[in-house]
Amino acid sequence: MSKFNPLGTFTHPQDSAPRPTQGVLWIGSLDNTKLTVKAQYNPKELQVDKNIPWKKKEQANKVNTSGLHLEFTGAEGRTMSVELLFDQYELGDAGDVGPLVKDLNDMASVWQGSSADEDKRRPHLCVATWGKTLETFTCVIESLSTKYTMFSSKGVPLRATCTLKLKEADAVDKAADTAAGTTRTP
Q1: pTM over 0.90
Q2: How far is CA 28 from the centre of its chain?
Q3: Which residues pair with 26 in a beta bridge?
Q4: Is 184 within a domain?
Q5: Is residue 8 assigned to a domain?
Q6: Which residues contact 168 (CB under 8 A, 6 or more apart)?
Q7: How many separate domains does the chain show?
Q8: Does 180 fall in a domain?
Q9: Mean predicted confidence (pLDDT) in 71-91
Q10: Among residues 88, 90, 97, which one has the least CA distance to residue 162?
Q11: Cβ neighbours of residue 140 under 8 Å, at least 6 residues apart?
Q12: Does residue 16 have a pLDDT over 80?
């Protein structure tokens, strides 16, 4: 297993020298640095969206003016959409893509659900990197969709396509519980 470093390098288990990840898409957990996924094939596209929240100013609508008056309501992080293909067909029954998909599912799932520390009862804070195009994108997995497209004669999944939506985040917290009028904060 490779060790992920969010600065854009990884250390292969057979040597101790960091290797650049240039040209290879990586997604790794910052909460559990052993949990990483390296793209088997680089995606054919990478979409990064940035919404800038504007709202019509209430006062502007009450006064007969020419034109619209907008106000900036706060910054939002970028979102990224990417499709990863995992293909182990040539390895036959030994080519199970399940572990790769499991690692993505683990990053999208609650990190330590039974922990007494509320901050650990949330999905992983992650980082994605892809050479110079995407040097460091600190994020959470907003959605994950997996389509298995090929199986061995024994039912082992040999090929899968995972569609990921990532949302930029510098820090994450578990949401406060407001049920029954109580508020818990991390």
Answers
A1: no
A2: 8
A3: 38, 129
A4: no
A5: yes
A6: 77, 78, 79, 80, 137, 138, 139
A7: 1
A8: no
A9: 91
A10: 97
A11: 123, 124, 125, 126, 166, 167, 169, 172
A12: no
